[in-house]
Design a protein that fits this description.
Two copies of one chain form a homodimer.
Chain A: H1 5-13, H2 20-29, H3 39-51, E1 55-60, E2 68-73, H4 75-86, E3 93-95, H5 97-103, H6 110-140, H7 145-172
Antiparallel strand pairs in A: 1-2
The first copy, chain A, binds a DNA duplex through helix 3.
DNA sequence: TAACGCATGTAACAGGTTACATGATTTA
DNA sequence: TAAATCATGTAACCTGTTACATGCGTTA
């Protein structure tokens, strides 16, 4: 059984207390190339985690900004997380809507396919730049050697697939 | 809205009538690097598609093997598929349980992490070999230029990430 | 004045997963 | 004789998605 939203959030809280908003930010910047999350998943999960005593909530009132809830992992939460991190890893899952379209695009006009290519290239370039831009601050705030591998993996992935896409869009024209 | 199971199955049926078993086979060999399916999804989807008249079912009795159902796409199904294939593509989604483990592995012993690396490398090598082995028969049975791009994408992806993984497992030892 | 950042939450729903159930023939 | 191939299906469940709802302060 792969690690799900609950374990990911527990994992992020291991590096210190955070709000749901901050958890989302970490997910969007540093883990976005191998996991994706939305607020619609984060807040309900945090609520369940609190009900199960895996995290505790501290409410902070703010005047200039909305009030916030800071979540801290408990010992029970730590134990649950340790169990999950030691469990065997499962298969990676990639769902590419772009490749799906391309695979079945035999009846689409060339121009339409070119647009799909360009959109996918643009998306990947944004992802690549976002990830690369993270590196400096990430190292400052403490990046482990193992986390560096997840970073390298993302860069290699985007770089290699962008090359294929850019070559293909040329021969499509 | 990304293409879901129903559109994928409709897409496969565009290249001719197939059984659920055959659909699974195509998915596991040629599309497995960007989509994954299970029988638990395929058969119920086929049933819904038939109820909605997007496909028709022909029952074939066999003596030496189990009976089978051959599904054929209808005109309504064609129309639905054309609509889906022309719609904008959405973001790719990658979920890597291995990278998740690696990212949060600070408390795991080196040996355990090495095992995770080796397992992931083995999985990817199998995927790479399976995909490469498909090429010859795929070309014979008709592979479009665009499908060739999805193939190249998969090869580039596995090759690039395997290189990162192999380098990292060495420095981990 | 529009957009963005901060900040949280719910309800309905869709979609797929997992586990189970069956069984003959062929290949290693 | 164990395992793989062919072949289909259901039921319960889980997890996450989408859309909606609110609202102030700051920056462009």
């Amino acid at each position: 059984m792969a690690m799900k939203g609950r374990e990911i959030i527990l994992g992020i809280l291991q590096s210190g207390p955070h709000t749901g908003y901050e958890i989302n930010d970490i997910l969007q910047t540093r883990l976005s190339h191998f996991f994706d999350a939305t607020f619609g998943m984060i807040y309900p999960t945090l609520k369940k985690l609190e009900a199960e005593k895996l995290v505790t909530k501290q409410q902070i009132s703010q005047t200039d900004r909305p009030n916030k809830n800071i979540y801290t992992i408990t010992e029970v939460g730590q134990a649950e997380f340790s169990k999950a991190i030691g469990a065997p890893t499962s298969d990676e899952i990639l769902k590419s809507d772009f490749l799906m379209h391309l695979y079945f695009s035999q009846d689409l006009p060339k121009d339409q396919v070119t647009v799909f290519f360009q959109e996918e290239i643009a998306r990947k370039e944004v992802k690549l730049v976002t990830l690369q831009a993270q590196l400096a601050t990430w190292i400052e705030n403490g990046m482990t050697e193992r986390q560096k591998v997840t970073f390298d993996y993302g860069i290699a992935y985007y770089t290699a697939t962008l090359a294929v896409l850019k070559k293909a869009v040329k021969s499509n024209q």
